[in-house]
Amino acid sequence: MLILPVLFLRPRSSADNVGLQVSRIALLIALVFASSAQLLACAREPRQTLRPAPTLVPVPNPSPTPRIRTPDSTACSIDFWHSLTGARQACLEDLVEAFERQNPHGIDVRLEYHQPLDTEITTALSAGTPPDLVLASCEQELRYAAAGVLLPLADYLTSSDWGLSKVEANDLWPFVTAPSCTPQGNENSTGVMFDIDVPLLLINRTLLASLGQEAAPQTWEQVRNLCNGARNKKAGTWGCVMSPDGDALANWALNLGGQLADPVTMEVVLDSPEMVAVLSLLHDFTDDGCAYCVDDPLAVREDFASGEILFAFATAIEMRGYSDRIAALGGFDWEVAPVPHLIDEATVHLRSSRLIIFRSSERQQLAAWLLVKWLLRLDSDVQWAQTTGAAAMHRSAPSTPEIAAYLGQHPWYNTVLDMLSYARPVPAVPHWHETSSLLAEAARAVCQQQMDPAGALAAADAQADALHTP
Amino acid sequence: MNGPNRCIWLALVLSAMCCCGQASPPDPTVPPTDATVLSPAHQTGVVILVLEGARPDWTSQHIERGLAPNLAAMSDRGVSATSFRPVDPNLKGPFYVSLSTGAFPQTTGVVANTYHLPGQPLDRTTDYSLTLPESTEPIWRTAMRNGLVTATVLWPAADMNMPELRASYMIDVAQSEIKPNLHHIALEAVHEPPPDRTSYSIPQQAVLTIQDANGGHAAEFRILALDSLDDGVQQYDSLVLNSDAFAEQPTFLRLDKCAAVTVSPRLQSGAYLCFTASEGVSLTLYQSQVSYASAYPPEIAAGVRDLGIPPPSPDTDALRLGWITPEQFVEIAKVRAEWAMRAGLHIYRKYHPDLLLLTQSIIADCAAASPMIQIEKAAPIGEETAELSEHLALAYTVVDTHLEDLLSLVDLANSAVLVVSGETVTQVDTTIRVNAVLKSAKLLQVQGPDDQESVVLSRTRALAVGDGGASHIYVNLQGRQQAGTVSPEDYEQVLAQITEAFGAVKDDLGEGTFSRILAADQLSDLHLLSPNGGDIFVQAQPGYYLDDGLEYTRLTGPPTAITAGGYDASIPELQGIFIAIGDQLALRRTLPVVRAVDIAPTIAKIQRFSPALTCEGKAIEGIWR
Lengths: 470, 625
Hints:
The structure holds two protein chains of two kinds. Chain A has helices at about 5, 20-40, 85-100, 115-125, 140-145, 155-160, 165-170, 175, 205-210, 220-230, 245-255, 275-290, 295-305, 320-330, 360-375, 380-390, 400-410, 410-420, 430-445, 455-470, and strands spanning about 75-80, 105-115, 135, 190-195, 200-205, 240, 290-295, 310-315, 335, 350-355, 425.
């Protein structure tokens, strides 16, 4: 499928070409539809029944948000569950220990690592002993909120006694506290963002310069041309290495103006024209012979760090690992750029964990909220960003000495911070974890030339439908 | 209560049951239909207890030795079978699913513990527990459709996450991602020894971190090591473990013993720690898989918490690696069996299910605990080693005690108790590497570094998937597999190549090592012809373990398991047992043959409802009073 990159050919800032682009998009969508309709007939019927996620019994009449009261003078302890490892776990432990030391209410925190987090939360909920606070995924928040077991946070965010001050609230990017993972029609957020990740295009500037190019590519067509230019069998250089990853592919599709789920029914849509376009890109790149796929994301890092690959796709949180590995293997000049997008207005879709509080006693809820508020402080944010590479949640973060120093050592982080001004959260999709795996599986089949994009996605979509059938 | 006393007690109970049962015997000639469903108040209850691994020869021996008086009494006074036929292959998945549904593997699709699903890449396999069949109705679902209350405890063919496989009440053991580990811990002297602890050497301390393979820290424990013996030797033989930061009850652990520690109080998950070695100022602790109880419906979960932390399945890998001793392995198996029975009795007392399905795995576990290192050649079937005999004696004693607890609770005047076994095993002495066989026949190509080999699908014509004594071999057929390499014209030739390759694997005496090498069209007789099955199915002679690892080049090697099942299910010693008593059931009767698939329809008949349409077994003839 050689049509797609041509269709994406447009200067990022040229308003004159908008009309032309729209017609090209329409043509693209029509072509992809025709192609997918043909191939749908050839798609295999999935036979395996995927195991559904653990069930969660809805609370019939969740109690209203209690009035926020001052915690009594006796010490209280809260359970905070997460599934972070490595430096992120260590940093979270540091932040929590600092909270324990400094909070004036004597709140102790039992910080626990759980894996699989979702299953263990569901089990604890069943027994009536859920944790107080969880660092969860968006889809988990969506499900728990639908079951009525989460605490709506609006009253806490705006509480004159316990909430964020106006200065604090205004300093946070709006998406941090927006209700992006609550059931449709519910504008009272049940979680806040934490550990925000940004998708990035990694560029080997040394190789890029050897192709006579200085600026990062802004369109998929430019990416493809450069990919082909970089492939040199004799020198052993490649244009691009990819690891099929559901989150990344979803991001590409969103950047093309697609949707992951029907906004009304919330039914997941994996075989949208935009998603077919995305897998067609994968197909075309590998078909050209300038790109290859690997299963292990660490292999992407290892190959890119070798200096023989022009492009790779990764996320901000992975950048520390890339940076270290590139330096360890001798180093070269590299940078990051936004992943190409279709619409003129630049956009970036963020993924993050969500801090959610389970309904319990007023005292426990408030104690949990105070820890959330602690984690939302600028100091905590800066510490987290420095340690993990996650995007800072505060507008003022770049002006802090710590982040300024960090930027000196990690210039790529400038790009991440710049992208936040036009960022928005990835929309909530029920069962995204399983759906993302299906998407990755489809991409893998396309990469390995086992299936065509439309056929692979049609099969994945059918399996996703089964997941979403009650 | 000692053995003879238990027998007297059981005799009294059985006598009472006989009298009551004779008062109004149901008419077994009336065909059960949905219309004949009794109200729950008048329903005959059924409890089925599976003794995993209980071979008929072992059971007879232990009954004769007086180690299983309750089994003996049941067998004497109720109905038993000379032969209880499991399905082929006699492995956990096929056995439990067929027992539960009354359908053969050809209908359930559960043709092994691990198999390849149609439509998936050839090198992708799935565990039976992830693909439990939805089209064959398990007996508890049929019972529930007929208005009965059912319960399962640790029942492998039930799944509380799948509505069509749920019982009314369920208890299971779930596992965290935190795998077993062996911790070598360096001790440091305690500068201010606690005054309330006695130690004849300077007390030492350390921190134990329980974490998963990704480095996620799940829990930390402060360890205080004490030397409790006044023998002039510095050896720390007693540990006091405290969960970090929270003042919970400490755990005490003696050298060579095991104890449970809580990992997450709210989840009530935990691990079993075994104190396996102490040398100077270092010690070694084995940490089991972290596990916790899960229950359905959610409202029973809080009550299940009272049962304590459920032990995981005893760790055969840890035993094989020498991380734990056979005694420690058996200790965990015993604790698990006790937990499982406590859970069963709890659910029976509290929810009064009409149908309760229970398992006890300690016999199979104990069989697996015999130290392989002392076995140069697997003992012939029926001639086990002394170590195995010792462990089996313990297992039968434990099981029989639990059976007594169960029988003391069940009203036999209005209920039936069925004890059956499957998944029987024998010791193994040699591994046959089934994919090495295919590689040697140029039917399989792999690539990649050691231990990370992957199948080169484009150059592979067949792949074996196997566990225990059985293996399915799948042909990479064009039009069926995503990247098929074998044309339909070459299919028969590839089958012949596979058959020849496996037939050529001989033992030292030049004898064949496989009892069966069957093409798919020959599997109907075994009720094993299924889309999930291989194009060729092989079963080894007992004593050979089939390993489907890709890394091997030599065809055979030392055993990678101590025991294995899945052999020809017609071998008498590797069949199961069947013993039943109940108000409708015959007294002192021995039947020649009972099949595993006949259990579900027999339960249906006892409880007077029609079995599911997919049920292929028949209610047992001659069992009725």
